[in-house]
UniProtKB/TrEMBL annotation, chains A, B:
InterPro entries registered for this protein in UniProt: A-glucoronidase_C_sf (IPR037054), GH (IPR017853), Glyco_hydro_67_C (IPR011099), Glyco_hydro_67_cat (IPR011100)
One CC-aspect GO term: extracellular region
One Pfam assignment: Glyco_hydro_67C
Protein name: Alpha-glucuronidase
Membrane-crossing residue ranges in chain numbering: none
One term of GO molecular function: alpha-glucuronidase activity
Species of origin: Lactococcus allomyrinae
Gene Ontology biological process terms from the UniProt entry: xylan catabolic process
Residue ranges constituting the Glycosyl hydrolase family 67 catalytic domain according to the UniProt record: 104-436
The Glycosyl hydrolase family 67 C-terminal domain, residue ranges: 437-660
Length: 664, 664
């Protein structure tokens, strides 16, 4: 088996279109139109004529099509776009509709302007929170390790840090464009080792080779930077954003980048977070920090993407009034309106860190004068490491449709002073593994993220159906439905056997896979559950807790604040609750914990049965890949179930009312 | 400051003896007599005459002195030994007595025949469980990292694995001989990477350079071997001890070693333990495994030191009948009498793993037909990493004086068919740090171990007094007493703020420093505390528990079995006890837990005050070194106190009866 083409199965597509003759009606060429021609001729091996009258499929630019430059229209055999980028999107949309036999009639423009992927790839080839082998950008050509680990120091691999696997990069660019991604950052936001030097020669020249490929797919390349770069690689004595020589240094560095990469996207910055350097150490605020870079980018329309994942990672568990959930709000809300036009705040969807159940981060809806990106995590850091199945689109959609002063999917754009500088961003889950994601079925998440960015009104079911149709065209509708049933419930199943009722953070420290109920309970990371012999949960109410509920619009706040009104699944994120408290489901909290964990395990057992029943119907690689991981998932689910249930049984001394096996 | 000479302060000694003239009365020379001459002339720069009549101090061999070849007698200015080795020991004993002004009158022979040090040094320079910098044997010349970490993979550093710091090795050899050590193994018992090849060319030739130095100090060199070496480096298809070609391979390897190192000591073997290979994988028992090597060593009087630290490290926490404490007994007791004469079982003093409070391993006293070594750990893996003060000699003495069919210090020898093949062994705590041990005061443990091996009747107080006198000759008796008071109580203090009442294993996994109450509770290592809302502890009784108590002599077993008779400090190792149970101290278990933890912290605060009061009286390096670590110890003790107390308060809902601060 070669490298998986994901949904873009070239032989299948070629077969479908083998009788067609393409014609490109462009006034002038750019790197995207050349890519389009190459896609037809080189990738698919189809006919491309220069004689309009011989054509059966026409590709055209029509700048009056829509005010959105990325829009496209498919009308029978005609594919038009407002720009070459629109045509490119239309081209892949045409392929998609053709493969799954939808009517060749569609007008479409993306709803989020920025549709971005962040890589946490490191210059030694490892990937922070990567579960699908090494980086496709960095590392040794031909090598691929499984790099799942708890710490992310970068080892010195010399100066030859680029993998140079351009075939792979082209495949990746194609996949990204086919789902509408238009921006990518290549390296980990924790910028270490030679990663700090990617922005200068001789590394930036190598980055430009990668950026050129992405450019031709309509994707702008960004780099994550180390805030202390002026000191670390510029040899200045300071990185203070108000220091003249610091500003000058950045100006020079950025000017040089644009000489090498004329359409460079900009920087992604994680500053003052989890030990990374930042403006606070110079007594400057984050607006001062970001705006300094923005000024240097201004001549080139470059962007500064500034992460709000700023919290005190030296939290004292003894202080129950401190609340990490409030940190981003408290750090950034006072700065609303203070950021330059080409700065965008990148804000995680939830207030903690991509847990399987978190409420929407209250900055969404509240920030009204600041460009915003909502951040998601495709890589399954807290969601089973692409071992356990977890189709996460339902959870993401619940976030973008959540209304705090308006639905988040709209407020992200509507509250951004420059709507084009807003959108969604997600951490990639791909690596050098042959199927890109470790688990074949984890491709659905990457696909789904792109589709969700483009069309905010697609449902999780629609996206999944589409992906299954494209990916498993050869299998029967019944078999497809079986896989559908597994995947559509998988995020909820993972939640069932994980930390109960949104309390979060009971996993093995650093690795974040598998249970360790007290793994972070007495640690400095501010993620606690406060279980005692009477109850469990974090009191974030205004009345008796940290007051976090007050950060939401009053009607939402009221609901979260109230033990009666709050939904069961959000309960322990907001309240410390007695084990005998009766939930909306009519059961006690403790019984609900037990029931959910037993149910979670039984769901996984059922997945295994279903999967076994389709043996021979999906290709053997996929079958074995998923079967093997389902067995690991069962072990994990059982482990979670046993440890969580035993933990709370030992704590509460309350037996399961159905007498099932809970170890003493 | 150069490298610390430990108690062997050459300028102080030289000053004391500057008017003396040494004379060596030996019939023939060997490497030890040459070393003795060199110690006088090169190390101390003192006078050595060849004219007996000019001598003021005479060194002589008198083989009728004692039946023990290592014995010495000091009589005024005459130092005699049964052998050159005896003279060497007498020489350092003379220096010791001279420095601390004891009468120059002593006849002495060691009580343990083998007095051995194990190093867990790795070929990349790291040390498993090392807290004083890198290995003195391996690693790059001139480099020294702090290598405290949780995992011990060996990185590839090329073929040049030896540090070649012979000055350092000579200092170390001198120190070892001065405290009576006569055997050393150089490398980690988890033998990885190039470590497996130390027993063959070209590495064994480099080992011989180290062995030569130690030989001259009366110390035999051993190597730890990987049981699977025939497969790993011999390229055989098996390592089965009953396979002819495997036996032949070992015979060849061992024969070659003796060509290179004629007085080579033998092998140390960790087999079938914690993932290491061993005879079990070929369906052979440990006697078959060990005897195969013993046969190959037999022509050279080489030894096979076989560790009994064999247990199932895939234990299921769900099964409360499984008990790691029983493992060594169950694996080795049935083999008593089955081992060859040149095999020695190396048995940890306690049944788990060097915890601050464990009962004596019941194999001692029970094994009657097998050569034995009792194993201690000088390196403070579970005792504070040489950050927290922990003078461990009191704990070790309580072990050797514990009687299970006789005092362990005697049964080790008395129950060994070849008494010369018995004794004590300990894991070293030294590394490349300037003061060897990270913490200057941790030298007392190494010194104490050697003295305890030599003279089983010394008390912990005597040993400490001796070490303080030798090490801090310049300070006042009052100041010395202050340091004494701190150190003599430090093992108990550590116990006070650690896991309560011998329950053990509540530390951060892998690192083993700092609290993580549930760190191993649901893990596979078989070290649990089983705390629930009613009580805590491991039921190891025959009546209701794992039956471990039955492994002891009946009177001991009866005492451990009885909740009324058992000492408070051993309680939770043997019983699962309700928090409201009244201990011998008149208090409830839960109150005892609280009290001990508050007391532990207050002891450390007191240590800091005492230490501050001697500022200016000890040298500045020592003062700062210890002061800095005491501050870290306070942080650690407070952390243990807060986490343990909160954990049990949350569990039990029982308040401290003195209303002190326990966090909710």
């Amino acid at each position: 088996m070669g490298v998986d083409e994901m949904w873009l199965n070239s032989s299948k597509i070629k077969d479908t279109l083998k009788d067609e003759v393409f014609y490109c009606n462009f006034d002038e060429e750019d790197s995207i139109t050349l890519r389009l021609r190459s896609e037809i001729v080189n990738w698919l091996g189809l006919k491309l004529t220069t004689k309009q009258e011989l054509a059966t499929i026409k590709l055209e630019i029509d700048n009056k099509l829509d005010k959105n430059l990325e829009a496209y229209r498919i009308k029978g055999q005609q594919i038009r776009g407002t720009s070459s980028k629109g045509v490119l999107y239309g081209f892949y949309a045409y392929l998609r509709r053709k493969l799954i036999k939808l009517p060749l009639e569609e007008t479409s423009a993306p709803q989020q302007a920025l549709r971005m992927i962040n890589h946490w790839d490191q210059v030694d080839g490892t990937i922070e929170r990567g579960y699908a082998g090494e980086s496709i950008f960095f590392g040794r050509f031909g090598s691929n390790d499984n790099t799942d680990k708890g710490s992310f120091e970068v080892k010195d691999i010399g100066t030859d840090i680029f993998r140079n696997d351009f075939t792979r990069l082209e495949m990746y660019g194609r996949f990204l464009a086919s789902i509408g991604i238009n921006a990518i950052s290549l390296n980990n936001v924790n910028v270490r080792g030679l990663g700090t030097s990617l922005i200068v020669s001789p590394y930036i020249e190598k980055v430009s080779e990668i950026a050129k490929i992405f450019s031709s797919f309509g994707i702008k390349t960004f780099l994550a930077v180390n805030w202390a770069a002026p000191k670390l690689i510029g040899k200045l004595s300071s990185s203070d954003p108000l220091e003249r020589e610091v500003r000058l240094w950045w100006t020079k560095v950025i000017s040089h980048i644009y000489q090498v990469i004329p359409d460079f996207g900009g920087f992604v910055v994680k500053a003052d977070s989890e030990g990374e350097p930042g403006p606070y150490q110079y007594g400057r605020n984050h607006a001062e920090g970001a705006n300094m870079l923005a000024e240097a980018f201004q001549p080139y329309q470059g962007l500064v993407i500034w992460r709000t994942f700023v919290y005190n990672s030296q939290t004292d568990w003894r202080n129950r009034k401190s609340d990490r959930a409030k940190a981003a709000y408290e750090n950034f809300m006072p700065l609303d309106g203070k950021f330059a036009e080409n700065v965008i705040l990148q804000i995680k969807f939830g207030p903690i860190d991509f847990g399987v159940r978190e409420p929407l981060m209250p900055l969404f809806g509240a920030l009204k004068k600041t460009n915003q990106l909502m951040e998601f995590q495709i890589t399954a850091e807290y969601l089973g490491h692409q071992i356990d199945l977890n189709y996460s689109v339902p959870q993401w959609l619940s976030m973008i449709h959540f209304s705090n002063y308006g639905q988040a999917k709209d407020t992200v754009r509507d509250n951004s002073p420059v709507p084009n500088n807003s959108g969604f961003v997600a951490i990639s889950n791909v690596g050098m593994d042959e199927n890109w994601c470790g688990n074949k079925l984890a491709q659905a998440n990457f696909y789904g993220f792109g589709r969700m960015c483009w069309d905010n009104n697609l449902s999780a079911e629609q996206i999944l159906d589409e992906w299954l149709n494209l990916t498993f065209t050869e299998i029967s509708a019944i078999t497809q439905k079986k896989i559908f049933t597994i995947l559509i419930s998988s995020n909820r199943t993972y939640e069932l056997y994980n930390a109960p009722l949104s309390v979060g953070s009971m996993m093995v420290p650093h690795y974040h896979y598998g249970p360790a109920i007290n793994g972070y309970e007495y640690d400095r990371w501010g993620a606690y559950h406060f279980a005692d012999c009477n109850g469990v949960g974090v009191d974030r109410t205004v009345a008796t807790g940290t007051g976090y509920t007050s950060l939401y619009e009053s009607s939402i706040a009221k609901k979260f604040e109230s033990l009666e009104e709050i939904a069961d699944e959000d309960l322990l994120f907001f309240h410390h609750v007695n084990y005998r408290h009766i939930l909306h489901n009519g059961k006690t909290l403790i019984q609900t914990i037990y029931d959910q964990h037993f149910e979670g395990v039984s769901c996984v057992k059922n997945y295994i049965e279903v999967w076994q029943s389709i043996r021979g119907e999906v290709d053997e690689d996929t079958y074995n890949n998923v079967a093997e991981r389902l067995n690991l998932q069962l072990y994990n689910a059982q482990n979670w179930c046993d440890q969580v249930n035993t933990y709370f049984y030992r704590m509460s001394d309350i037996s399961d009312n159905q007498g099932r096996q809970i170890y003493k």
